[in-house]
Amino acid sequence: MACTVFTIANQKGGVGKTTTAVNLAAALAERKVHTLVVDLDPQANATSALGVEKFEGKSLYGPLRGEGSAFEMLTPTAWPHLALIPSEVDLAAIEIELAQQPNYLMRLRSVLEPLRNSGGYRAIIIDCPPALGMLSMNSLAEDDHLLIALQCEYMALEGLGQILKVVERLKSAGVNSTLDVGGIVMTMFDSRTNLSKQVLDEVKQHLPEKIFHTVIPRTVRLSEAPSFGQPIFTYDPHGPGAAAYRALGKEVATRFDLGASDA
């Protein structure tokens, strides 16, 4: 069965990007979809959120430089059907080094292609840094679908327009002609405020076919879970955050035909 690669990106920080990457991956794994998280953010927040220690030499820094393979970096997690390629601070240096290499936008594609074709994973979820730098561009050049985590605030709408323009530029330049915006995940929704509702309505109006039906609420538990190295399904399995990401996992599995079954 084919492997689908998702990039979760937004050049703005603090929008729930890593929270979505980790918990969407955990939701798919809960549905018995063999899923791999690739942590491309030098801050390594997705690595920590999955309870994995940061070790020198376990990120994609070496493979992106032509040293070693992605297979060597595979790291198990405590959850069935969910694996990780961790990040580390050395990954920050690759932003500069990649620009000096030939085909610098295609490095991640060549590194992940053997994993993608191995048959070991049905979904690969790439968590990008909160910037549209070299790592994020490499991810967009590799992936099948961009998933945008968008905070329910007006400033986030400006960032949405910017990233949509980047997608069109990459497509028109032939870097990834099949790249599409697979969906927009509205995060940090606060039902008590008019602002959250207004932003949600605006995105629904302009991109009705892209926005996911599932809306991720703003909850303390979702904020706390990463500090305990756990997805929300372990930290607060019966709370609204877990219910939302479980619904998002089902929606993603259905939209992209991931062959999932309920656990």
Descriptive report:
This protein is an alpha/beta fold and 263 residues long. The chain has a single domain, classed as P-loop containing nucleotide triphosphate hydrolases (Rossmann fold, 3-Layer(aba) Sandwich), CATH 3.40.50.300. It is built from eleven helices and eight strands. The chain has helices spanning 17-30, 45-49, 61-64, 94-99, 107-116, 134-142, 154-172, 194-206, 220-224, 232-235, 240-255; strands at 4-9, 35-39, 75-76, 82-85, 123-127, 145-151, 180-189, 211-217. It has an eight-stranded mixed β-sheet with strand order 3-4-2-5-1-6-7-8, sandwiched between helices. Helix 7 (154-172) links the parallel strand 6 and strand 7 (180-189). The longest helix is centred in the middle third of the chain and has 19 residues, at 154-172. It is globular and about 50 Å long. The mean pLDDT is 91.
Order of helices and strands: EHEHHEEHHEHEHEHEHHH
Q: Sum up the overall morphology in one term.
A: globular
CATH architecture: 3-Layer(aba) Sandwich
Mean pLDDT across the residues is: 91
End-to-end Cα distance, whole Å, is: 19 Å
Number of domains in the coordinates? 1
Outline of the structure:
This protein has 263 residues and is of the alpha/beta class. It has eleven helices and eight strands.
List keywords for this structure.
alpha/beta, 263 residues, Rossmann fold, eight-stranded mixed β-sheet, globular, 17% strand
